[in-house]
Task: inverse folding
């Protein structure tokens, strides 16, 4: 899969203020991160062809539902796909910026 701690540090290097590992499941890791003063949930899994991640605001989900199988079908959030861990992190930063930007305009 991915090196969980290395990916956490990469997100911080790219712009997150803080990132914590919430849960590790078979084939999936769930993080919570602070980006521009907002808490975001990031769930990362490996699909058949690539890595994929789902990112959304933490206040959109009950903490009891922070499980990979639930998050996968949760109707809120944006998906990011990549074959490369570094590219996945950069794409997540881009989506985080868009999510925060949408919150500011609504």
Result:
């Amino acid at each position: 899969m991915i090196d969980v701690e290395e990916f956490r540090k990469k997100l911080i290097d790219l712009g997150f203020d803080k990132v914590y590992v919430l849960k590790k499941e078979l084939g999936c890791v769930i993080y919570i991160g602070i980006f521009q003063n907002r808490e975001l949930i990031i769930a990362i899994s490996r699909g058949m062809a690539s890595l994929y991640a789902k990112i959304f605001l933490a206040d959109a989900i009950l903490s009891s539902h922070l499980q990979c199988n639930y998050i996968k079908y949760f109707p809120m959030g944006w998906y990011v796909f990549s074959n490369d861990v570094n590219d996945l992190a950069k794409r997540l930063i881009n989506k985080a910026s868009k999510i925060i930007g949408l919150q500011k305009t609504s």
Notes: Residues 4-105 form one domain. Strands lie at 18-25, 28-35, 38-46, 51-57, 78-82. Residues 85-105 form the longest helix (21 residues). The chain has one domain: 4-105.
